[in-house]
Amino acid sequence: MNDNNLYLYLHIPRTGGTFIENVLGSWSDRTNDRYLKHYHYVQNFTENTYDQLLLPKLFNRTKDQQKQLRLMTGHSVFCNSHRWCRTTKTPRIFSVIRDPLERCLSSFNYRHTAATLCQEPIQFTTLTPFMNESACHQRKTADDYDTLWEWYQDTTFETNIQCKWIIKSFLKRDGSSWFRHPMYLFGPDTGIPIEKQVAVTWPEWMFIPPDEEDQIDWFALAEKFFPEIWWLTRTKNLDETMKDFSVHAGLEYVKSDIKTNSAKLKYWTLDDVKAQPDVHKIIEAEKYDYQLYEAAKKWERPF
Q1: What are the structural domain ranges in the chain?
Q2: What is the rounded distance in angstroms from the CA atom of residue 264 to the CA atom of residue 289?
Q3: Cα 81 to Cα 10, 73, 88, 129, distances in angstroms
Q4: What does the alpha-carbon distance between residue 11 and residue 14 come to, in Å, rounded to a whole number?
Q5: Is the CB of residue 92 less than 8 Å from the CB of residue 28?
Q6: Bond before 42 cis per omega within 30 degrees
Q7: pLDDT in tens, 123-147
Q8: Rounded CA separation 61/45 (Å)
Q9: In this structure, are residues 27 and 53 in contact, taking their beta carbons and an 8 Å threshold?
Q10: Alpha helical stretches, state H, 78-183
Q11: pLDDT digits (tens, 9 = 90+) for 49-81
């Protein structure tokens, strides 16, 4: 175990991230000083949660406390998040990849669950990441779709989202050009307006339909960053995988009681979707994420 390593987890939506953030010593847990080893950013685009839980924000922690930091998680973590620390850390970037069809269905069912249990139908379209403007305007719900493919066309952001997530974790986009993230990008406690935080966490270019992007090869662009990615793994056997990782990273593995996908409402099952007449269209459209999924299968575990 290298005490200088800082493991940066790029949390792609609907790929087991909440499970990971809990079993690797929850960031909000003071037991055994877990909160000092695991920092979570961003929580609803603000760090107010830390104040509410009586936990010190990253900026307020001493250098000695920051030296104890082993893991950084959250949808806004990116390739240079280790530079938020005032102590030198060696980044070890990793992410979890999920079968694209399963991930799409999970997002659909998750939205349906939130809308149903919260008795707030609009959550189906406005739960981040937002669905397309037309779907939001019409306040669509799961009942408005006969197949997952119909829903998929209303949620451009989620098209090949796993490749896009790798890309946005390393790059920012300006017009039609791609630029490397600067050495230091704003992070916790910098006083940057929320609208700018949102723009980096959910870049506008992720909402642009592929046919308007001149058919960008999302996998080819994501693959360019493989040399800088320490590990890509899959959701398969994630429990055992994270147990092994916790030993390697010097983190306490904590059995989680958090609800899994099996406990959530299911509008459709995977078998339901596979029986739908247009499911092949999703599989074809997700070709870049399927390439990424296959790459993750072949990735050699670094521990």
Answers
A1: 5-99+159-298
A2: 25
A3: 10, 10, 12, 22
A4: 9
A5: no
A6: yes
A7: 999 998 899 999 999 999 999 999 9
A8: 20
A9: no
A10: 100-117, 123-126, 133-137, 148-152, 161-170
A11: 888 899 999 989 999 999 999 999 999 899 999
